Amino acid sequence: MNGHRAAVVGLTAALLAASPAMAQSRPTPPVETVDYVVRPGDTLVDLAVAYLNRPADYRQVQRDNRVTNPRRMAVGRSLAIPVALLRADPDQARIAGFRGAVLLTQGGRAATPVQGQTVIEDAVLTTGANAFVRLALSDGSHVVVPSNSRVRLSRLRRYALNGAVDHALTVEAGRAESRVTPRRRPGGFVVRTPVSVSAVRGTDFRVSFNDDADRSATEVIEGVVEVDSGDGLSEALALADQGVSSGAADTRLLPLLPAPALNDPDAVQSGPVIDFALTPLDGASIYRGRLATDAGMIDAFAEADSAPGAARLTYPELADGAYFLRLSALSGEGLEGRSTTYSFIRARNGVGGLAVGSEARDKRRFYRFRWEAEGEGEARFRFQLSREGADGQPEGPPLIDQPGVSEEAFTLSDLPPGVYTWRVQGSRHRFGRLLQVWSEPQQLRIGR
């Protein structure tokens, strides 16, 4: 990372001398070159055939380096070769994993991808709601395309000279999360949106594009990212924990929000829906949570944003098991901040379907209270019946408090007239935890 930072700073020092964050104009950049050390038997003609776009390009290398004889050069001599002359052959990526509605469009055909499938330049990955696809690049870098996104692999190339890879993505809608391994020159990694260009040689960062607002957001988790407006009028150099909000009219460098926190991280998710309460975070506009079966979020399967200003995330029904939640917060400028990951247990435990019936037998009135256990595993129940006071609350201690009920029913007889409140507690052991939950109180009126 330090080497990359030095390289980026070296390329942009003239632009950022007046302001380390922003530059308003851009002079003509110097020609980028790569050094090549002459080996025994090398000639400029042979090098051009092997590594340059055209064999005749050797003449420019000869002029630039003042080589007298292109067929005879001293071994160990260094040649500065313009990157623009270097031949870059097609490179490939592969589908490392996906979940949900994912579409891969390449070669004029759109279809659901296959695990391990080869992906070529100009392919487009499209994800639906709660869908994710993970792309493995040839140098060990990875790109995750989260839900509701469309990303084009606009450049997948490898330089013939030294095998350095050069990759570019275009976020046409939604987001892309990239973890890029350090790259050799002249290779690089660029993520474009309609209003910005983010360039790195090795780092961990995210890029998103909001079509409605016509703005892009670049968030740096590790390393350094150079963000350009794309029209040459402004740029920003973002370090770790910084983000860049870019639009057609401005580019702003801002700090990222810290990771939010759960109110009760040890709580078992036993309710009918998954519900996480968060501690409100200053500056947060929206909270984002991603669910996965692994802490690295490789096998992510759901993502949700909170309502604006609401520190709460909910998800629909989820099978019992152990899961992970990655939390982050978005600022008012649309920048997603630092994230933190929690493990949690999903173990459904509920009591529903409460009902009561009565029947007369042998000149007595019997009341049959029924309910249904919700969740997996053997459950035990506790039945309580109380008189209801004038304020609608239980009046004193329960008249009946019976633990250890194994059936989903309980029978009482000869209750005197009055208004009663009854409820049931369900208990079960799951994942090494004792889970207990009370049903909603129910009212029973008995007339004279």
Automatic annotation (TrEMBL):
Residues 36-82 form the LysM domain. Residues 1-23 form the signal peptide. InterPro entries: FecR, Ig-like_fold, LysM, LysM_dom_sf, UCP029644. Keywords: Signal. Pfam families: FecR (PF04773), LysM (PF01476). Residues 124-226 form the FecR protein domain. This is FecR domain-containing protein. It comes from Brevundimonas pondensis.
